[in-house]
Amino acid sequence: MPQYTLNIAHLYGDLMNTYGDYGNIIALRYYAEQIDVTVKTTVISLDNTFKSADFDFVLFGGGQDYEQTIVAKDLKSKAAELQHYIENDGTLLAICGGFQLLGSHMIMADGQRVDGIGALDLYTINMHDSQVKVAKDARLTGNIVIKNNQTGEVYHGFENHQGRTFIGDQELALGTVISGNGNNGMDNHEGIIHRNVFGSYFHGPILTRNGNLAKRILATSLSQKYPDINWEDNLKQLPTESF
Amino acid sequence: MGFKTTVAKLTAKSSYWLLHDILKRGGTSLPGKLAVKIDPTILKHIQQDFDLIVVTGTNGKTLTTALITRVLRAGDYDVITNPSGSNMIQGITGTLVTSKFKKNNGKRPIAVLEVDEANVALVASAIQPKMFVLTNIFRDQLDRYGEIYTTYDKIVSGIKYAPDAKVLANGDSPIFTRGDFKNPRIYFGFDHIQPQDYQSLTAPNNTDGILSPTDNSVLNYDFITYANLGKYRSHTDHFARPKLQYAVTSVDKLTPKYSEFTIDDTSLRIEIGGLYNIYNALSAFAVGREFNIAPEQIKSAFESNAQIFGRQEAINVDGKDVTIVLIKNPVGTNTVIDMMLTEPEPFSLMTLLNANYADGIDTSWIWDAEFEKLHTTKITAVATGGERYKDIQVRLKMAGFKDQAVYQDLNQIVTAIQKMPTKKVYIAATYTAMLQLRQQLSAAGYIKGGF
Ligand SMILES: [Zn+2]
Q1: Among partner residues B202, B203, B366, which is closest to A20 by beta-carbon distance?
Q2: Quick one: closest CA in B to A44, which residue?
Q3: ipTM of this complex prediction, to 2 decimal places
Q4: Contact yes or no for B202 and A14 at CB 8 A
Q5: What domains sit in chain A, N to C, each tagged with a CATH number?
Q6: Beta carbons within 8 Å of B403's beta carbon, 6+ residues apart
Q7: What is the band of B111 on the pLDDT scale with cuts at 50, 70, 90?
Q8: Does residue B76 carry a catalytic annotation?
Q9: Annotated catalytic residue: which of B143, B237, B362, B409?
């Protein structure tokens, strides 16, 4: 009987879950179960209250533009608690639309401006913006490979986004683009690392194809909750899926 | 008709004749391409001495088109239709310029065309359809078309070219209540659950299009047939599923090979498994009734010729009973898995994944399909393969299928089938993987002709 539990909040899991983002939870569960950790997932959607103390990991996936504008409105009611979670070193993975909504604002494909929660120093413009010098008016779609800026690990995935994201000078990108486009196709940045928050445009999904990152996120989440156990060592024993 | 159009028509006809009668190759795409090249407006010059029915949507277009064609023919209409896969503007042009109506019985002939969602406006702007049949809209190949609302907007822009056309739509799909067009709308759907058995459900988390158009709240369902289809309502206002003109009133038997059900007062049987295929039959039934074809005639159209359901084809490989199914998006794959739940025999499953353009170059959709559900079927062995064998292998491993035979190379496919431990074998393959598979099976003599 597993004695450890990882409580996952799937933020707007019913509305922001395109391109297989849920697979990130499947991957975490896959590794967790092998080290006797039970994973419990709760969808926190419109009208639900997000309580940071209830969760050890948060997944915030991408969605369609329409759903994203509805989510952005609702997110205002959860912004303070989410900010609190992040600044207390809570572990969070934000993909695509979720990544964009952690920033200050975004311009949707149709020009509509949507406010994010401003937890991270980043903003997003659309593919039609005059600043866009690479693939203007086109989506950035295709296979992508990056090198993690902290660990040097190489990650594989698939990106599919029209928005172009720019991170602030003080923020660290998740990785440097080896092939593909990344945040905006211009500055070689892909995603963001901010405390224990990982943002990315990777579908694929990122944790299913990049077991090193899955293990790292799992160890980070569990160490917050059970600090006396060496989770990294426990996870090191397991074979890593990486392709 | 101008000189250019005449030349275009003649070219298309003679190239069709060359391909079809001399080289014995089917195909309307090349003649269509040639015709469009010589006269880009050729569709506009086609004599409109027929009524046009456009069938569009994400899943089920091909079978729905074939069923409608059969139903109308049973009602003594002269019908032309496009071959499966020729659903873009060239293929459609090719079909229309090379087909001839034969009957002269006083009834207006009908063209029933399967039309790709993004090509509806191109077709409808040239030839005013009499009717649109909308099957469903799910997330599909997003790398090509974008989001479900964008896809629907494209269809709506086509509908607007024909304001008098009837729109026959799947009432169980909330998206079809949207769209600012004035056309008469006729809905079909399921009403097989009695009110005392209604539940309060929300759609599974991996489905799209679950927001009420009135207040953007998450829809509740009295029942769900699959994905986001069912009897929905808003929990905050009066928005609810529209009244159904044609309904499946009971589902009598579901098996992988056939289904029995009742539409209004007619009990029917189709020689193909899967609840989703009942929707295709339902829409064909609705079209038939709109053209005043008697329910009994529709019934015999469904039941007289099983060949029409050729999509799920059964092949005998040295005593193994092999069924090939096409998978291309999460909802389609989930419905295939649901069908496997009705399989009474122990079976093996081989899943083949490619990621070429025709398959969709993004493989992330496999994570939205509920392979975990396979644990509740009679599955005994799992094999994976295809050009993206690694993706599908890891997907099924993380779904709890640790022991898998993995085939990187489809050249071994016949051996792979022979090695499966059960008599019953399912092969689920993406489009180009299916073509490669058929080629192998054809070369080994298990299927005739190939593609
Ligand atoms: Zn994306």
Answers
A1: B366
A2: B205
A3: 0.96
A4: yes
A5: 4-236 (3.40.50.880)
A6: B381, B382
A7: very high
A8: no
A9: B362
Of residues A13, A20, A70, nearest to B365 (C-beta): A20
Res B139 pLDDT > 90:
no
pLDDT tens for B381-425 read 999 999 999 999 999 999 999 999 999 988 899 999 999 999 999
Round to whole Å and give the CA distance between B433 and B422: 22
The class of domain B313-443 in CATH terms is alpha beta
pLDDT tens for A75-98 read: 999 999 999 999 999 999 999 999
Ligand-binding site membership of A139 (annotated)? yes
Q: Where in chain B is the domain with CATH 3.90.190.20?
A: 313-443
Question: Which tokens hold the place of B83?
Answer: 């071959």
Task: Select the residue from A208, A210, A238, A242 to test the B interface by mutation, using most B Cβ atoms within 10 A.
Answer: A208
Distance CA B54, CA B111 (A): 8
| Phi, psi of B222, deg, nearest 5 | -75, -35
**Strand, helix or coil at B3?**
helix
Contacting residues of A for B148, CB less than 8 Å apart: 64
CA distance to A129, B377, B380, B393, per residue, from B426 (Å): 49, 13, 11, 16
DSSP B183: S
Q: Which residues of B touch A34 (CB under 8 A)?
A: none
Top-tier CATH class for B46-185+258-302 = alpha beta
Which one of B205, B224, B331 would you mutate to disrupt binding with A, by most A Cβ within 10 Å of its Cβ?
B205
